[in-house]
Each structure stands twice: as structure tokens, then as C-alpha cells.
Design a protein that fits this description.
Pfam families: ParA
GO molecular function, one term: metal ion binding
Strand order of the largest sheet: 3-4-2-5-1-6-7-10
Strand content: 15-25%
Shape: globular
CATH topology: Rossmann fold
Protein name: ATPase-like, ParA/MinD
Keywords: ATP-binding, Iron, Iron-sulfur, Metal-binding, Nucleotide-binding
Family: Belongs to the Mrp/NBP35 ATP-binding proteins family.
Oligomer: single chain
Order of helices and strands: EHEHEEHHEHEHEEEHEHHH
């Protein structure tokens, strides 16, 4: 196993998240694999099984949570100038997409990105959330390390598509989290297959690459999510498939993975 940097020490839970019992980072080595859609559906699935859930959109340069969760506008502040998270589908959300004018790009570099993440974590009135889902930016750079220095991560969930390139990049993502002493809870293979009307499966992007990566790196394979046009359509509408088709096969897959994350982890110990 890769040696971890001896100087790295997991941070304490911020005061703003004092009631939080678990923090899950949903990550990918590259963009375009459906990481944000996966994170949002897992967050909503956790809320649907009865947990109080927060969702932090840490992708400062490409925030997707406002669209995926059907939210817009700016957060309201309370008497102590803390931002109240915007909420939909039972999930409390914070995103740079709420803080920038519509259509405005974030051109910040490392220190400003780190500062923005600190603000969203510490200056948001998260309340009594039990689970915080973090939609990480793609890649293995400053933002990922910055989050690991600001939040005690229960573990990381790596999202990949089946093709060899995506799986290779996912392996590098697993390596990064091992280096910063964050357990990798498992790999989700997104866009795993397309199911034809007759029930046969077409493996549009190849077959089993993410599963093979999980096996090679010794981490759990959490499941396959199909390539389904309804997931895209409902995401664009701000109605995650877990809500829009709650009894469907895809929603059941997300709920199963969400429950598995809870079953395989322990809540933070309180001093």
C-alpha cells in the first residue's frame, strides 16, 4: 500500500457541523463520469431512509448542485451572519453556485478556492445534519487535499465509467485518498450499460472496467448504475431520479448503495 505522508493529520469536525456523524466525499479522477449526479442521488437516498443530510458542493469552478437539486437564488443569512442552507428533497445544500451571479465563472486560484471552501463549511448554519455528502471537484489536486484538511472524512466513494481510461484515472484517485489517510469505501461504475427494450444489455463504454479497478486496488465494488436517459432528463429538471422515479430500478440501486455506506461505516466518536 502507498505510504501516507507522516505530517498529515485528519482535522477535527468544525463547530458548524458539530452534530454530524459521517462525512462522505464523492469523487472522480476525471470529469464527465456523472459524479455530481451520483452524489446528489446518494444524498437524497440517505434522506429518504430517514437521515438528516447536508450536501456541500465543493466543485467551486463547476458547481452542479443548484441545477441537480432544483435550487436557485442566494442563501439567507441569520442574525449571526451565518448562511442558511437551501433545501430541497429533504437535503440541505450549500454551493458556490448560490454565491456567484448566474453565468459568472469562478477564476480563483488555490488560496481563494481554499478560502471559499472554508466559508461554505464554517459560515453555513448546517443545523443538526447527521450525514454530510461532499461533491468533490474532479481530479487529484489542491481542492481535494484542501477538503481533507478541513473536514474529517469518513471515507471516499469513487465514481468511474467502465472504459479503460476512466478506470485508470479512478485508480489514481484511489491512490491519492490512500496517501491522505482517507478510507476508500468503494467504487461505483456509472453508465455501466444500456438496457434495451427486450432486456438485453449494451455495454456502450465497455464492460467491467470500474469493477476491475476496485478488485485490483482491494476496495469494495459498490454497484453498477445504468446509462439511462431518464437520469439525465430528471437531473436537468432538478428532480433526482431517486425522487422522480422512487420505485424504479435505478432508485433502488442508489438506495442500496446509500444504505451500504451507512452499514459499512461507524459514526464519529464524541470526546
Amino acid at each position: 500500500m502507498t505510504q501516507n505522508p507522516p505530517e498529515f493529520k485528519p482535522p477535527k469536525l468544525p463547530t458548524s457541523l458539530s452534530s454530524c456523524a459521517r462525512v462522505f466525499a464523492v469523487t472522480s479522477g476525471k470529469g464527465g463520469v456523472g459524479k455530481s449526479t451520483t452524489c446528489v442521488n446518494l444524498a437524497v437516498a440517505l434522506a429518504r431512509i430517514g437521515l438528516r443530510v447536508g450536501l456541500l458542493d465543493a466543485d467551486v469552478h463547476g458547481p452542479s448542485v443548484p441545477t441537480l437539486m432544483g435550487l436557485s437564488g442566494r442563501p439567507v443569512t441569520d442574525g449571526e451572519k451565518k448562511m442558511l442552507p437551501m433545501e430541497n428533497h429533504g437535503v440541505r445544500c450549500q454551493s458556490m453556485g448560490f454565491l456567484l451571479p448566474p453565468g459568472r465563472a469562478s477564476t480563483w486560484r488555490g488560496p481563494m478556492v481554499s478560502g471559499a471552501l472554508t466559508t461554505m463549511i464554517n459560515d453555513t448554519r448546517w443545523g443538526d445534519v447527521e450525514v454530510l455528502m461532499v461533491d468533490m471537484p474532479p481530479g487529484t489536486g489542491d481542492a481535494q487535499i484542501s477538503i481533507s484538511q478541513k473536514l474529517p472524512l469518513t471515507g471516499a466513494v469513487v465514481v468511474s465509467t467502465p472504459q479503460a481510461l476512466a478506470s485508470e484515472v479512478a485508480s489514481r484517485g484511489i491512490d491519492m485518498y490512500e496517501r491522505i489517510r482517507t478510507p476508500v469505501l468503494g467504487v461505483i461504475e456509472n453508465m455501466a450499460y444500456y438496457e434495451e427494450k427486450d432486456g438485453t444489455r449494451a455495454y456502450v463504454f465497455g464492460k467491467g472496467g470500474a469493477r476491475a479497478t476496485a478488485e485490483a486496488r482491494g476496495v469494495e465494488f459498490l454497484g453498477e448504475v445504468p446509462l439511462d436517459g431518464d437520469i439525465r432528463a430528471r437531473s436537468d429538471e432538478g428532480a433526482p431520479i431517486v425522487v422522480a422515479d422512487a420505485d424504479g430500478d435505478v432508485a433502488r440501486i442508489y438506495r442500496s448503495i446509500a444504505q451500504r455506506l451507512i452499514d459499512m461505516t461507524k459514526p464519529f466518536e464524541r470526546s
